[in-house]
Design a protein that fits this description.
This protein is mainly α and 238 residues long. It folds into two domains: 2-76, Oxidized Rhodanese, domain 1 (3-Layer(aba) Sandwich), CATH 3.40.250.10; 86-236, Alpha Horseshoe (Serine Threonine Protein Phosphatase 5, Tetratricopeptide repeat). It is 46% helix and 5% strand. The protein has helices spanning 7-12, 26-32, 48-58, 70-76, 88-96, 114-121, 124-132, 147-154, 157-165, 180-186, 190-198, 213-216, 220-226, 228-236, and strands at 2-3, 19-20, 39-42, 64-66. It has a four-stranded parallel beta sheet, covered by helices on one side. Strand 3, helix 3 and strand 4 (64-66) form a beta-alpha-beta unit. The longest helix is centred in the N-terminal third of the chain and has 11 residues, at 48-58.
Length: 238
């Protein structure tokens, strides 16, 4: 476990058993550490640690993690005694999916979290366990998408309900300004569009280019759901 903060911050407080990493000792650490040893790196907010993690990965380390949100996010989290112990089933699932077995907020490629992956797979029980164990519902991956986007991609309405009830941002815009509703409409996923609208998704939002979910709709079913007059018309059909 490596701490990428400055000396003063490290001496004031740090995670148990962590050691400092800096430009001065980086080369020595790279050469002295076994490539198969798991590495967790954290900094203040999760930015510098990602850069260090990339360096370790480039040097052939097989298991490297950057602490999402950094030391400040960890410190602001609930005390360990207030968190549900990680269920044995969840621990095994984390290991199988190549996440750290004791970290429900670990990230893998593209800053994908366990909750994002479970939502994509439609594994409702794992989603429930992750949320209960402190999984960050509104974490975003490298593209700016949260777990709700992944549930929409996988077409899992029940998982969408679980995430919304847990407080996820249903209108989260990714780095392109696209919301889950826009994605579902542009992919022709009418059932997902219907579920998002029922859960309160805002159909009036637009991308930076001025496109709404209605503009992006790819099927007649999605158009009927998103256009008020079409919705009335569809409702009156036998």
């Amino acid at each position: 476990m490596l701490d990428a903060r400055d000396v003063g911050a490290f001496e004031k407080s740090h995670l148990t058993d962590a050691q400092r990493v800096s430009s001065q000792n980086l080369s020595a650490l790279l050469n002295a550490t076994t490539r198969t040893r798991p590495i967790l790196i954290y900094c203040y907010h999760g930015n510098a640690s990602r850069e260090y993690a990339q360096i370790f990965s480039d040097f052939g380390f097989s298991e490297v993690y950057s602490l999402d949100g950094g030391y400040e996010a960890w410190r602001a989290g609930p005390p360990a005694d207030d968190r549900m112990a990680i269920d044995a089933e969840l621990r095994q699932w984390l290991v199988t999916q190549h996440f750290a077995p004791a970290d429900v907020n670990a990230v893998v490629a593209n800053a994908t979290t366990p909750l994002m992956m479970a939502s994509h797979h439609g594994d409702g029980e794992i989603v429930r366990l992750l949320i209960a164990a402190g999984g960050r519902v509104n974490a975003r991956n490298a593209d700016g998408n949260n777990a709700l986007w992944f549930a929409c991609v996988g077409e899992h309405p029940d998982v969408i309900d679980m995430l919304v009830e847990a407080g996820i941002d249903i209108d989260n815009g990714n780095h392109d300004g696209a919301t889950p509703l826009m994605y579902a409409a542009s992919s022709g996923k009418a059932a997902i569009v219907a579920r998002l609208l029922a859960r309160g998704a805002d159909a009036s939002l637009e991308t930076p280019d001025g496109f709404s979910a209605l503009d992006l709709a790819q099927t007649v079913e999605c158009l009927k759901l998103l256009h008020p007059r079409q919705r009335i018309s569809a409702a009156s059909e036998p």
